[in-house]
Amino acid sequence: MQRRDFLKAAGFAGLSLVSPLAARTARAEPYEGRFWIFVNAGGGWDPTSLCDPKGATSEDDPDPMNHYLRDQIGQAGNISYAPAPGNQEFFDKYYQRLTIINGLDTATNGHDSGSRHIWSGRLAEGYPSLAALLAGSLAPTKPLAFISNGGYDLTQGLVAPTRTGSTGALGRIAYPNRPDPGDGERSYHLDSTMERIQLAQQERLAAKRERMGLPNRRASMNQLFLATQGKNEIRRLTEFLPDLDGSNNPLLRQAQLAIAAYRAGVSVSANLNIGGFDTHGDHDNRSVPRMQMLLQGVDFIMEEAARQGVGDKVIVAVGSDFGRTPGYNGDNGKDHWSITSMMFIGAGIPGNRVIGSTDDGHVPIPVNPTTLASDPNGIRIEPKHVHGALRRLAGVDGSDAAQLYPIGEEPIALFG
Predict the structure, then answer these.
(1) Which of 333, 147, 183, 414 is nearest to 255 (CA)?
(2) Which of helix, strand or coil describes residue 29?
(3) Phi then psi for 246, rounded to 5 degrees?
(4) Rounded to an integer, what distance in angstroms lies between the CA atom of residue 396 and that of residue 389?
(5) What confidence score (pLDDT) does residue 176 get?
(6) Are 359 and 54 in contact (CB under 8 A)?
(7) For the chain, what is the mean pLDDT?
(8) Is 190 exposed, middle or buried (0-12, 13-18, 19+ CB in 10 A)?
(9) Which tens digits make up the pLDDT trace of 326-355?
(10) How many angstroms separate the Cα of 290 from the Cα of each of 39, 84, 90, 223, 251?
(11) Closest to 164 measured CA to CA, from 267, 18, 91
């Protein structure tokens, strides 16, 4: 086997065969491509309360889809929205930058399978999340290449996920010689002593690595080496971190950490996660406040990215496990429904655009794959079509990882 073929096969098997010198060189250059943020509304949101509104025919409607009327539905450019609190402000502010995909068929009403389908592009098990695939294709050696705060984050060995919301832990990694990472005046050892310790650690690690003959153990030693080499980049991250938001909206803190990591050049993608959308009872009173928090979080991402000077580099995808049933159950709640929507905003995303639709019963209407117009002889939009389009937008559709995990969709120009 040629060395090139062996390295490719090893990469497919999830083995890191990066030399220490190559690792240092790769890590020295900050990642400056697009930053991909995936916002998961955990539990199954209700698109008819957001971007695919379905109002009741009248106040006397015996089986209303929702407890608002059709003539109360709002409009911002080409985007219709439900008259729920917070929706008008959000869509008026961002409609010129948003692409909405309605009538998205997840083919499941199970939480695990729905989340997997939405965020990997495949209903079957075994595919990495798109966030992991992007990080693994674009900059897998970065110490925080893929940050995950929950949701579907299977990596299949393409990249190591970083699951942390603790900036204190990052500070201790960045400044191991300080009792308090924020206090630069106190240290355990003199700088000269610390340099000798670090040199001895690297020499010992290199010697152990050379003695490892089994691929799995050698890969583990590679990962350990890469982790130790990332401390300077983590230190750069701590310099970009603002004072974290103290509100009860978890998306705000998650966004601050993710954007700071991108600014430091150490991150490619991030999963942001907010739950509470599985509303089998008292749907309106439970779902609407969570939707407000979700939109507040997306608004904060865009504002924070602009404030940090990277607003033209961030792409945000918002989705959920599936949708909610048309109408209400006996507990005034809504159950699981396989049809849902997704929202996209950011660099390279066309604005004021709605693709796909549903009928009055929230059943998807097929679209022509070329024109994207409603077409009874067309196709239903599925997560694979979205993922294929996002892979092309990211320029990774021809990467080794993408070929190892093909989507197999009919290409649709969802993003131009």
Answers:
(1) 147
(2) coil
(3) -105, 15
(4) 10
(5) 72
(6) no
(7) 88
(8) exposed
(9) 999 999 999 999 999 999 999 999 999 999
(10) 13, 11, 14, 39, 11
(11) 267
